[in-house]
Amino acid sequence: MAKGKDVRVTVVLECTSCVRNGVNKTSTGISRYITQKNRHTTPNRLELRKFCPYCSKHTIHGEIKK
């Protein structure tokens, strides 16, 4: 029995405020998280509030392409 596309896919979440500000002058990187999402229940791009160690606060992390 052949399986179709996986329902659960791995996605990368990236801090939107670090990207928008061109990375803070004091920080040396961009915060990224790896998580999974269900393709059927969440067909659009995923956005979650996560902690960014470079901004030192909770910010919106959006899904990016690999």
From TrEMBL:
<dbReference type="Pfam" id="PF00471">
    <property type="entry name" value="Ribosomal_L33"/>
</dbReference>
<comment type="similarity">
    <text>Belongs to the bacterial ribosomal protein bL33 family.</text>
</comment>
<dbReference type="GO" id="GO:1990904">
    <property type="term" value="C:ribonucleoprotein complex"/>
</dbReference>
<keyword id="KW-0689">Ribosomal protein</keyword>
<dbReference type="InterPro" id="IPR001705">
    <property type="entry name" value="Ribosomal_bL33"/>
</dbReference>
<keyword id="KW-0150">Chloroplast</keyword>
<dbReference type="GO" id="GO:0003735">
    <property type="term" value="F:structural constituent of ribosome"/>
</dbReference>
<protein>
    <recommendedName>
        <fullName>Large ribosomal subunit protein bL33c</fullName>
    </recommendedName>
</protein>
<dbReference type="InterPro" id="IPR018264">
    <property type="entry name" value="Ribosomal_bL33_CS"/>
</dbReference>
<dbReference type="InterPro" id="IPR038584">
    <property type="entry name" value="Ribosomal_bL33_sf"/>
</dbReference>
<keyword id="KW-0934">Plastid</keyword>
<keyword id="KW-0687">Ribonucleoprotein</keyword>
<dbReference type="GO" id="GO:0009507">
    <property type="term" value="C:chloroplast"/>
</dbReference>
<dbReference type="InterPro" id="IPR011332">
    <property type="entry name" value="Ribosomal_zn-bd"/>
</dbReference>
<dbReference type="GO" id="GO:0006412">
    <property type="term" value="P:translation"/>
</dbReference>
<dbReference type="GO" id="GO:0005840">
    <property type="term" value="C:ribosome"/>
</dbReference>
